[in-house]
Each structure stands twice: as C-alpha cells, then as structure tokens.
Amino acid sequence: MTEERKKRVAIIASHGTLDMAYPPLLIATGAVAMDMEASIYFTFYGLQILKKGGADKLQVAPLANPAMPMPVPNIVGMLPGMTAVATGIMKNMFKSANAASLGELLELARELGVHLVACQMTMDALGIKREELIDGLEYGGVATLLEFCSQDAITFAF
Question: pTM for the whole thing?
Fold first, then answer.
C-alpha cells in the first residue's frame, strides 16, 4: 500500500501592499487548516511582508485602485495623505470584521508550518539582508519554488 501525499498549495507573493499581502497568507493558513501543505514564495516587493515589523506597516494605494471602497472619486487618491487615509479605512474595515492583522496572520502561518520562502536572488538584487527579515524563513531561488510546484501543487500568484 502506498502512502498518500498531502495536497499542496504553492503561492507566489510579489506585491508589498496591504491589499495584496492578505490573500497569500489567508490561502496558505486555510490550506494548512484543511490538512494541505502550503508554501509562500516571497519575491520582489512581496519581501516587504517579511521585514521585521513590516507586515503591519504595509499600506494600500487608492490611486489607480478603482475597487477601493472609498466614498470619494478615484482621482482624489492622488492628493497628499490619501494613501494613509485609504490604509486606515482598510485596516478599520478588517478590524471591525474581527479579522486578524497581517502580523497575526504571518505568525499564524509560521506556527502552522507554512513554508515561508524568501527569494534569495531578489534579496541580493534589492540589497535586503537576512537580518532585516523575520525569523523562521527558508531561503531559495526559483528552483525551490519549481520543485515544490512540480509535485502536484495548486498554484496561485499575487
């Protein structure tokens, strides 16, 4: 009798904004809660999520984001201070819905055993040092991602 391997979810996180940081963490923690193996590969600006204290400092830009639920025209997003306003609105929406903060989700992902992989090539290119990132990470290149994906992983990119 052969042992059945767990289903796998591979997620690429390449954006470092508040609205793009939630989906990878929510999907990964949900997958692990459903007894799946999950890995998030953080590359380019997605590495901002992994910076020490960085997850809860991420912002959302209202400009060129027409789906942003703000009671003002999208063009107002270009005014100084509107990124802070939009970020505050989004954080308050999540808080009033009793949703976890990004920092809490990131900690939960670590506790649940989600593979959190920082792209070494991007770190080198952007001058990001391991000391700047949270503890408990794995480091690898595209081969690390592809190896995980090659074993029948459902794959998402954000």
Answer: 0.88
Angle (nearest 5°) at CA 18 between 14 and 20: 40
Joined together, the tokens standing for residue 84 give: 């802070």
Using pLDDT thresholds of 50, 70 and 90, give the confidence band for residue 98.
very high
Closest CA to 100 of 21, 10, 42: 21
Q: Which two tokens stand for residue 158?
A: 């954000």
What domain range includes position 111?
8-58+101-157
What Cα–Cα distance (Å) separates residue 20 from each residue in 16, 26, 60, 64, 75? 7, 11, 9, 14, 21
Distance CA 77, CA 71 (A): 11
CATH number of residue 151's parent domain: 3.40.1260.10
Convert the pLDDT of each residue in 21-43 to its tens digit.
Answer: 999 999 999 999 999 999 999 99
- The pair of structure tokens assigned to 80 is 């100084």
